[in-house]
Every structure is written in structure tokens, then in C-alpha cells.
Design a protein that fits this description.
Layout (H helix, E strand, L loop, with lengths): L8 E6 L3 H17 L2 E9 L10 H28 L4 E8 L3 H11 L4 E5 L13 H9 L4 E4 L1
Parallel strand pairs: 1-2, 1-4, 2-3, 4-5
Helix pairs in contact: 1-2, 3-4
């Protein structure tokens, strides 16, 4: 018996890769179809080991550069969402330990009904079927995850 989907809130994780931007397009389509709110999330991964070897100014430059990049992606995605009449929120978080953990944590904090993520990310490293971030989000998320290929 299908009672229908409750997709009032959708979280889409992006990293600027072609797949993640495609995931954002799907997120907008789903949000429009199900009259949902959409949260676009970018996680800046700060490698803990690297922190020992960089200066504070280099660290700040790294964060600023990543935030500028994500703002460009957010602007493009937000423009499309608004044209489709979809309510959108964008957010960048900084994470030292686990990118999948940060995505899942935000989804839980936002009470997201679904996470949408690209199958492979910006690193270009491809596992057999899925990238490691997508694999871990699928494995550990408590809510459904749509992986865009």
C-alpha cells in the first residue's frame, strides 16, 4: 500500500563536480514536484594532518577560496530554483573528520526527508560503482538517499 512520499525537505550535497550539480538539478525537480524545501550543502573538507603544515593566513585563504567557489555554485542553483518556484537554502560547513558524517549530521539537524548526492565527486577517484562519500552516506544515513549517476 503506497501512502505517498513525504518529501517536505530535501538536502542536496554538492562539491562542484558535474555529478553534484546534476544532483542539484534533480533536487530542484523533486522539490517542485513534491512542493518541498531544498537545502543545498557544500562541505569544505579540512584535512587535519595538513593543518600542522600551513600558516593561519594560508588556512584562511583556503577557506575563502572554497567559500567563493561554493557561492558561485549556490548562485547558479538558487537562480534555477527560484525560476522553478522552489524555496531554497544554501549552506557551507567546514569539516575536519568526515564529509559523509557532516552531510548526514546536517540532514538529521534539518529533519531532511531525503538526501540527494552525486555518485562520484570532484576528486575524480572512482570506485567500482560509487565514490567513497556517496557510499558512506548511503551506508550510514537514516533517511533515504538518492544517488545521481
Amino acid at each position: 500500500m503506497n501512502k505517498g512520499w513525504n518529501l517536505s525537505k530535501i538536502l542536496v550535497a554538492i562539491d562542484g563536480s558535474e555529478m553534484s550539480l546534476k544532483a542539484a538539478e534533480y533536487g530542484i525537480e523533486f522539490a517542485k514536484k513534491y512542493n518541498s524545501k531544498i537545502i543545498i550543502l557544500h562541505v569544505i573538507h579540512i584535512h587535519a594532518a595538513g593543518l600542522m603544515y600551513i600558516t593561519e593566513s594560508t588556512f584562511k585563504q583556503f577557506i575563502e577560496k572554497n567559500k567563493r567557489e561554493s557561492e558561485e555554485w549556490f548562485n547558479t542553483i538558487s537562480k534555477e530554483a527560484k525560476e522553478q518556484g522552489v524555496e531554497i537554502k544554501t549552506e557551507t560547513v567546514e569539516e575536519i573528520y568526515s564529509v559523509p558524517g557532516a552531510i548526514i549530521k546536517r540532514a538529521e539537524e534539518e529533519n531532511a526527508d531525503v538526501i540527494i548526492i552525486g555518485g562520484t565527486g570532484k576528486s575524480g577517484f572512482k570506485k567500482l560503482l560509487l565514490g567513497s562519500v556517496a557510499t558512506d552516506v548511503v551506508r550510514y544515513s537514516k533517511c533515504p538517499v538518492f544517488v545521481i549517476k
